Amino acid sequence: xxxxxxxxxxxxxxxxxxxxxxxxxxxxxxxxxxxxxxxxxxxxxxxxxxxxxxxxxxxxxxxxxxxxxxxxxxxxxxxxxxxxxxxxxxxxxxxxxxxxxxxxxxxxxxxxxxxxxxxxxxxxxxxxxxxxxxxxxxxxxxxxxxxxxxxxxxxxxxxxxxxxxxxxxxxxxxxxxxxxxxxxxxxxxxxxxxxxxxxxxxxxxxxxxxxxxxxxxxxxxxxxxxxxxxxxxxxxxxxxxxxxxxxxxxxxxxxxxxxxxx
Length: 262
What we know:
Structural class: alpha/beta
Order of helices and strands: EHEHEHEHEHEHEHEHH
Number of domains: 1
Number of helices: 9
Distance between the termini: 15 Å
CATH architecture: Alpha-Beta Barrel
Radius of gyration: 17 Å
Mean pLDDT: 96
Shape: globular
CATH topology: TIM Barrel
Strand content: 5-15%
Largest sheet: 8 strands, parallel
């Protein structure tokens, strides 16, 4: 079974045809979709999607690009959502050193607060690490969480190895389908098999065959095919391995009982 470890299925881009998007993914063998929140304002939407669709499970967090409008009350709301909804992870959290303007100090404070919550709750984290991998690793060494996923990983082999040492898997998706993405393709081809999980980040990070179009979780089988070819393995073996990897790093997935509709 394919697991999409990062898909913003609650996003407004899916409001018109969410049923069809989920059905297409299921028909392609995507049996579980992890839906991470990005701010308090969409906690309810994430919860609703995960109650509605079988196999969809939630993560709750405050994304670094949304911290400028977050308050201390939002951290309390996050703690309450984690207790009430029993998510598989805290996320999407992290640091972003790409978008301008931004408040680096505010990002770091919110990141550390959410790491601390994850450690207290013994939950893994879904990490946003854009242009900030070393800074994220520095905080992870200070606030030791049980592990998680470095989403949309785009770093060096050395940085990948540091995440692996800290109990993390690395998320790969549409970017590796572009022939010009030579560094990511080489990394995805050479990392230990047990270090990789699959993701789409839908509706973003579309694969090469969609280019700038809307990404969907239904693209995951074809992304898996590309990764299998890069690694010189079968799609079946790749799916089996990445499924096991996701269950290992997100233990609550194994005890999630899907409900709702496909």
